């Protein structure tokens, strides 16, 4: 489906009618900070929230509530007549809806799906509510801190990929004629989140999706930076002494699995990423 690219000054019928239709049948991805904030707001542990209210091993909200709009199930956090039960901590995808965002050439671009404003399909009453600019909507939805967290985790995806590159290219592994690593990277790009999680193991899944950190809605950058440090320390402790070709292979594959699962959590497309990364690796002497 085509996207309609928006300017920040564009005026749109963005005042919500509170019908709750968008809380049914949607797909809401979660980065680790968002999951931690949702668990904190619900007054349960991040592990409990992940196991009870998410799918895809913690990177997507579960929509298993009552059937409502268009015969679709509601988000597990939606309460009929009340709305979102964790509204203050709602994820970026919910704050932006019906808008989306992408990073293009270092710039944030906002858009909506299709040529027609999405809300008109189920909530055409919004045409009678106040219009506002994209900028005004973002400010009203308080997206800034959530965008900071999303951007930081996007950067972490690349940092993890860079570590996998180092293990492949700077260790002598690629020079040895290794082909398995790139072949496995390509296989992983087509794996489900559950398959990636099984590949990386419970310890790494927990460290990636539910780090033992206290979330702070006011300071997402601090949480993300601490999370990055935890991952870097564990990667060094686990793979810092890898020497044999087999050990280096396993390390490069494991780190790339972490990058891909996190990429899914922040809405990136694993196949496109892997295709790009394999091209880079090949241009630096790796073989497939």
Automatic annotation (TrEMBL):
<dbReference type="InterPro" id="IPR005358">
    <property type="entry name" value="Puta_zinc/iron-chelating_dom"/>
</dbReference>
<protein>
    <recommendedName>
        <fullName>YkgJ family cysteine cluster protein</fullName>
    </recommendedName>
</protein>
<dbReference type="Pfam" id="PF03692">
    <property type="entry name" value="CxxCxxCC"/>
</dbReference>
